[in-house]
Design a protein that fits this description.
The structure holds two protein chains of two kinds. Chain A has a domain of 80 residues. Chain A is built from ten helices and ten strands. Chain A is an alpha/beta fold. In chain A, β4 and β5 form a beta hairpin. In chain A, α3 runs parallel beside α6 and α5 crosses α6. The model of chain A has no long low-confidence stretch (mean pLDDT 91). By secondary structure, chain B is an all-alpha fold. Chain B is 70% helix and 2% strand. In chain B, 42% of the residues are buried. In chain B, α4 packs antiparallel against α12. Chain B has a domain of 220 residues. Chain B is globular. The chains are: A alpha/beta, B mainly alpha.
């Protein structure tokens, strides 16, 4: 078992003439929190969508756990152990929180139409088992209060947590978080930082994250990759990357007086 | 008001949430079983119709209400089920084989129609299924050697082992058994992983995929299950109307069925039966009221369509969850009296989705 969990090599995705992601390469090691930063339109979310196979790469290769991801269909990704959240929350609105989380267990539940139609004891046992796993996540993220609430009636901050919970229900090896702190207030962001630490240390899940809030980034990340206009600018610890002249230039523009 | 204290996971898996529900559904079942003894022949026949449309509605509810795929072609599945039933019964097959077969054949058609559903969405899917509906109607009309074409096809009484379902009460019991079994199967599917996958596909295809749900397989399955129950309903429908012609299974029928699930309440099993109740009783109600209206209105052609249209508009505007949604509010009002607040069922503002990956 190699040290590298996710390996991205020369990955490109072009939309017509726009090179959203251009020749990007990086490795995510097991057990680290790896963050992508960059100004708007840098291609961070596109990298996420390429990893979760919602987009096909124009060229390049993604390997996960020694398997080539770029040849798998989108629905096979969860089974391999990759879970993700979305920048603008993609929950199942008209289902309860509990049902949302149970869908997270989908890949682990055996399905047989006949058994389900008759609701045989085996189906019931599987449901109990799934519920057991879901409850662990509910306890982990303190969602007890919202179990039976319809997602459509939840405040934004809670939805973010529910989405994180649903991703954890998959039981992933790699967790992709797309701007987890956007729209959260200061308290919620602080909770999030603790959870990300716990996800890494207690659950042993590797985290790949896109984030703008630099205080959160420096607090939780082991390594940071800065992108701009689809290309890699710098890679290193949060402090190193923040000092990099090219990163500063990308954020603040050129021609800063000495 | 009842406050549930949950002590085991089974309480969320069980069919009934609490003993009160067991009581009320038991009472309903008892009343339905006893119906032939307390109802006259005509209301009983209408009740059979409600059950038949209820089964058909269940089928469409799985597709439109739970998977979010709107079909304008369910009249065709009804037709496939009805003609299969009529022909097999004429060939002397017993009903307990022909009814599932009618469903299975409709399901096979459903898989075929489900294929375009993998590529088109929303209004385009409606158009594709509408085209299918017209093709089937036309096919039935042209295949005269088998279906009798536009002249029509006489349906014989259902039978098994020399026992003929010829009385109104016997047919009613057949409908009741089929309706109860269908409801159980649908409810079981909806509370298991397959049903959750349907809801996931309805609410967000992107994240359904990321949860490992195979979109194509799930949608095709939804179409097959939906068509199955519509076909089963069609088999009973054939015996009910006793004479089949292709125009019974055209666009108007399909629209009636969509009306049924929308008025009943999309996304609820109860809604299928409430919608069926509406669809069967509304014409009767209109017929009664007609005589008291000024002749210019009462005798005007298209009164029924006008009423249907107005009800549909009212439902869409004021009660998107249909009759079942209204019932939930009434029930809550009764339970909480006098503390019901008007805003109780108001949803929070929905958050904008700017980055939907279609």
């Amino acid at each position: 078992m190699s040290d590298v969990l996710l390996s991205v090599r020369d990955l490109s995705r072009h939309f017509g003439g726009v090179k959203a992601v251009n020749q990007v390469s990086f490795d995510v090691r097991r057990g680290e929190v790896f963050t992508l930063i960059g100004p708007n339109g840098a291609g961070k979310t596109t990298v996420f969508n390429l990893i979760s196979r919602l987009y096909d790469p124009t060229s390049g290769e993604i390997r996960f756990d020694d398997q080539v991801l770029s040849q798998k269909p989108a629905h096979a990704i969860a089974r391999l152990g990759i879970a993700r959240t979305f920048q603008n929350i993609e929950l199942f609105e008209y289902a309860s929180v509990l049902q949302n989380l149970l869908i997270g267990r989908h890949v682990h539940l055996p399905r047989s139409l006949w058994r389900e139609a008759l609701f045989l004891p085996s189906v019931r046992a599987n449901e109990r088992e799934a519920r057991h796993k879901v409850e662990e996540v509910i306890d982990f993220l303190n969602l007890q209060h919202y179990r039976d609430t319809l997602v459509a009636g939840l405040p934004y901050g809670v939805r973010k947590v529910v989405e994180l919970a649903r991703a954890l229900c998959i039981g992933p090896k790699l967790l992709l978080l797309d701007e987890p702190s956007s729209g959260l207030n200061v308290d919620e962001t602080r909770d999030l930082a603790y959870w990300i630490d716990d996800i890494k240390n207690l659950l042993g899940v590797t985290v790949l994250m896109v984030e703008h809030d630099m205080s959160l980034v420096s607090r939780v990340s082991d390594r940071v990759l800065a992108m701009n206009q689809g290309e890699v600018l710098a890679l290193g610890t949060a402090a190193e990357v923040q000092q990099d002249p090219r990163v500063i230039e990308a954020y603040l523009g050129t021609g800063v007086a000495p | 008001m009842r406050t549930l204290f949950k002590t085991s996971y089974d309480q969320d898996i069980r069919l009934f949430e609490h003993s009160g529900q067991v009581f009320w559904y038991g009472l309903l079942l008892l009343a339905l079983v006893a119906a032939p003894w307390w109802l006259d022949a005509y209301p009983l026949a209408q009740l059979s119709f409600v059950l038949i449309y209820g089964v058909v509605g269940l089928g469409l509810m799985v597709l439109a209400g739970y998977t979010g795929l709107f079909s304008m072609g369910h009249g065709a599945f009804l037709g496939v089920g009805a003609y299969t039933q009529a022909l097999l019964t004429a060939a002397g097959w017993p009903f307990f084989i022909t009814i599932p077969l009618a469903g299975a054949l409709a399901a096979a058609f459903g898989v075929v129609v489900g294929l375009p559903a993998l590529r088109v969405k929303g209004i385009y899917l409606a158009i594709a299924t509408l085209a299918f509906c017209i093709i089937v109607e036309e096919g039935i009309a042209r295949w005269e050697s088998l279906t009798g074409g536009n002249v029509g096809l006489m349906v014989q009484k259902a039978q098994a082992w020399g026992w003929k379902v010829d009385s109104e009460a016997a047919f009613y019991f057949l409908c009741l058994v089929v309706a109860v079994l269908s409801t159980l199967v649908v409810v079981n599917l909806l509370r298991s992983p397959t049903g959750r996958a349907f809801v996931a596909v309805r609410d967000s295809e992107v994240s359904a995929q990321c949860m490992g749900i195979h979109l194509a397989r799930t949608k095709t399955l939804a179409f097959a299950i939906s068509a199955f129950f519509t076909g089963v309903g069609g088999a009973l429908y054939a015996h009910k109307v006793t004479y089949l012609t292709p125009d019974q299974f055209g666009i108007l029928q399909s629209i009636d069925l969509l009306l049924l699930v929308t008025i009943g309440g999309l996304g609820s099993v109860h809604g299928a039966f409430l919608g069926a109740l509406f669809l069967v009783t509304a014409p009767q109600g209109i017929a009664v009221v007609k005589d008291y209206l000024p002749p210019a209105i009462g005798q005007a052609p298209g009164l029924q369509q006008l009423v249907y249209g107005l009800v549909l508009v009212a439902i869409v505007l004021f009660e998107p969850r249909g009759l079942y949604g209204r019932w939930l509010k009434v029930r809550t009002w009764l339970q909480l009296f006098p503390f019901y607040r008007r805003g109780l069922f108001k949803r929070q503002k929905s958050y904008q989705k700017s980055e939907r990956l279609r």
